[in-house]
Amino acid sequence: MNDKPLVYFLCTGNSCRSQIADGYLKALGDDRYEVKSAGLEAHGLNPRAVRIMKEDGIDIGGNQSDVIDQKLLNRATYVITLCGHADEHCPVIANDNVVKWHWGFDDPAKATGTEEQILEQFRTVRDSIKARIETFVRTGA
After folding, report:
1. What integer pLDDT is reported at residue 1 of this predicted model?
2. Residue 21 is part of a domain; what is its CATH number?
3. Fewer Cβ within 10 Å of end Cβ, the chain: N or C?
4. What is the pLDDT averaged over residues 92-106?
5. How far apart are CA 108 and CA 134, in angstroms?
6. Active-site entry in 7, 11, 27, 38
7. Is 1 a domain residue?
8. Residue 89 has what pLDDT?
9. What Rg value do the Cα atoms of the chain yield, rounded?
10. Does 115 fall in a domain?
């Protein structure tokens, strides 16, 4: 059994925001955390998320889009939802020791405009998630 704190990032489709958070915590957490991500549904990994993370030196291309695993949910130290839908529809956590937080970020997959404008929305969300992960790694909150 892993003795590192398990951080479980949740989003609606586990395609963008939760994958970005997963990638950053794995990269910035100095191997202090077990990191998992999942969604209420599995929408597949968004290629734009992979692209903008690669721009920042992090390869999430091998990640899988998964649905929430109840065992992981109840074993987690932290359950962090990244969108309102996941926050509102998160399954019941049976373990009272799990810390559940909501870090809401806009869904870049809903961005419209030219490809460059859409990518800019992805980058904005990426940078916001990165800043939040940096705070978490630094302060534990």
Report:
1. 54
2. 3.40.50.2300
3. N
4. 93
5. 20
6. 11
7. no
8. 87
9. 14
10. yes
